[in-house]
Amino acid sequence: MTANKRILIIGGLLLFASIAGLLVLGIRWAGSGLRTVVTMSEDVHPADDRVESLMATVSDDNLSFDERNRAVWALGAIGDPRAIPLLESHYSGEPCDHEKYLCQYELCKAIKKCQGEFTSSNDCKH
Questions:
Q1: Long-range pairs of 85-92 with CB within 8 A, sequence gap ≥ 24
Q2: Tens of pLDDT along 38-92?
Q3: Which residues contact 114 (CB under 8 A, 6 or more apart)?
Q4: Contact at 8 Å (CB) between 104 and 87?
């Protein structure tokens, strides 16, 4: 085997290992974020399960839109269809106004994920 082929093979293996490592870190980061949001929701709204707690958080007008939007994101990450009616009740399809309403983009993504239909962020408009 020539030196150039060895360099290409080693470079390819290093690239593959780097991509795999980044993927693992991304998955761990997302999982950690989900646990953080669920824990916050369960502290504020104890319930029989995490989906019920998150749904109560989304509905809580005493919480900030940021806290409630994180609960919307978490419901989408979990993908439980029980959340669909609640998420749809907050979804207007209008442009986002984060000062007055829940994030329409996150609601759209969460609804589609709970319906098992989400394929990419292009499915929803910002």
A1: 86/55, 86/58, 86/59, 87/58, 87/111, 87/114, 90/58
A2: 999 999 999 999 999 999 999 999 999 999 999 999 999 999 999 999 999 999 9
A3: 75, 76, 79, 80, 81, 83, 84, 87
A4: no
**Alpha carbon 113 to chain centroid distance?**
9
- Provide the token pair at 1: 């085997």
CA-CA distance, 86 to 97, in Å (whole number)? 19
Q: Hunting for tokens 């984060």 — which residue is that? A: 98
- 35-123 belongs to CATH 3.40.50: no
Residues 108, 34, 77, 72: is their CA dihedral positive or negative?
Answer: negative
CA–CA dist 105, 43 (Å, integer): 26
